[in-house]
Specification:
Blueprint lengths: L2 E5 L3 H13 L3 E5 L2 H10 L4 E5 L7 H11 L5 E5 L6 H11 L3 E4 L4 H13 L6 H4 L16 H10 L7
Parallel strand pairs: 1-2, 1-3, 3-4, 4-5
Helix pairs in contact: 2-3, 3-7
């Protein structure tokens, strides 16, 4: 059975997604922030991670980076309602970093199911950066703070940018 981990700081959204996913026949677990989500994934890997991009503490891009460092083949769907940024502004770097699919809130249960099914069927692939040939010998998520992924993380996770 397909298992989904929902990582979203909004309790109402998280509960609603868990209910919809359960009704669609998925086994569901949830975490209220990126740190707990990563710990949950490390303890019990799932088929797909549904990851909110705007969260306090560890931001969605940081969580995505950490998940893919732990498991480069993790199937992550990035989702956002926008926050202060244009929704596409944050979803583009998420896809570039290795998220398999993206969803813009609000979305329908049919769109959610389709994104999960498509993410599962996608072959294991390198990040968009690696596919573009920036450095075929490099990991898709470099440890160096100078890598493009970390520039995205720095740009979108500044506390002043999130209104904290």
């Amino acid at each position: 059975m397909t298992s989904v981990l929902v990582i979203d700081d909004d309790a109402d959204v998280r509960e609603m997604l868990c209910q919809i996913l359960s009704e669609l026949g998925y086994t569901v677990s949830a975490a209220s922030n990126g740190k707990l989500g990563l710990e949950s994934y490390q303890t019990e890997p799932v088929s797909v991670v549904l990851l909110d991009m705007f969260m306090p503490g560890e931001h969605g891009l940081e969580t995505l980076r950490d998940l893919l460092r732990y498991d480069p083949n993790a199937r992550v769907i990035a989702m956002t309602g926008g926050g202060q940024y244009d929704q596409m502004e944050i979803l583009k770097p998420a896809i570039y970093m290795g998220a398999r699919k993206k969803l813009q809130k609000p979305f329908t249960s049919a769109e959610l199911k389709s994104a999960i099914e498509e993410a599962i069927l996608m072959p294991n692939a390198k990040s968009k950066r690696d596919q573009a040939g920036d450095d075929p010998n490099a990991s898709s998520l470099p440890e160096s703070a100078s890598g493009p992924e970390n520039q995205y993380v720095a740009r979108f996770s500044r506390k002043d940018s999130l209104g904290q």
